[in-house]
């Protein structure tokens, strides 16, 4: 059976390093996307065992999983600015902190809380560049009005989200300045901003001066960053040899016949393909011209060098040959002693893995 294996030891090692770098600033663990592919609940449980008490989500089900499994006192922040009344009802029932990213959303939450004879705890989102949710910095007067007019909102925090912290220092610093200006204006008006937070994983690692009152970490916990760090990727795909084939010289394998045997070759067929996330990458942000250029250049270099993808069998690195299929790949094991059922280790980003079991091991 294909399994994505998560190392508890490596995850805890990353967490210790991140806590040290946070220097006492609370970490809000982001468990969106089913815990970045490794399971929102088991990830949250391991984090809680290591002292994490704050979580960020993007789906109601993530909050339900936590509340149904012992996380009764944990603070949970919904990162989306939602106006759907049914969804808001469920989130309020689950005692989730809501994000207010517009006047209209604030009105909806305030009206619903009033109907429920309730007070909704919220964090205000400022849009400094991401462009999805949030008040623009030029709308600070609108934010100030929230404090005066929305009687059923308890504003417990304010935050923004950087869109290029992984690679554009100038833009990130401009966004941080704009955010801090909004915070300063609110405080100058005599208003309590609550928890101030802006750092995602990239900003946390690159700009410690921006840590503010809390940081939101997801990718860093999993050790998968778009730049070099001391953090360790916490998992890998585990499969097995499903079949062994001996191909004669001149025989091809895979779609497109992009690889042809130059000699009699023994192949191990492994039931992992691009559907499972193997050799699928989000390394480059293809919305940026610079990253598009780098990605094309890297692909051209790999073509010239005939670079191969490798998997591990019996402690040895073995090349994948031919085009990786939807559900299978072929591995050159010529000259090796191996058998059907032997263990195969593949490097797969959990963000892309699917159709496999996830297992936490020491």
Could you explain how this protein is built, in words?
This protein has 362 residues and is an alpha/beta fold. It has helices at 8-22, 32-36, 40-49, 60-68, 85-93, 103-115, 140-149, 169-188, 201-206, 219-222, 289-305; strands at residues 3-7, 27-30, 54-57, 75-78, 98-100, 120-125, 153-159, 195-199, 214-217, 235-240, 243-247, 265-270, 309-313, 316-321, 329-332, 343-346, 357-361. The strands form two sheets. It has a nine-stranded mixed β-sheet with strand order 11-12-15-14-13-16-10-1-17. Strand 8, helix 9 (201-206) and strand 9 form a beta-alpha-beta unit. Helix 5 (85-93) packs across helix 6. It is elongated. The two termini are 19 Å apart. The relative contact order is 0.14. Residues 284-288 and 295-305 have low confidence and may be disordered.
What secondary-structure arrangement, pairings included, does this model have?
Blueprint: E1 3-7, H1 8-22, E2 27-30, H2 32-36, H3 40-49, E3 54-57, H4 60-68, E4 75-78, H5 85-93, E5 98-100, H6 103-115, E6 120-125, H7 140-149, E7 153-159, H8 169-188, E8 195-199, H9 201-206, E9 214-217, H10 219-222, E10 235-240, E11 243-247, E12 265-270, H11 289-305, E13 309-313, E14 316-321, E15 329-332, E16 343-346, E17 357-361
Parallel strand pairs: 1-17, 2-3, 2-9, 3-4, 5-6, 6-7, 7-8, 8-9
Antiparallel strand pairs: 1-10, 10-16, 11-12, 12-15, 13-14, 13-16, 14-15
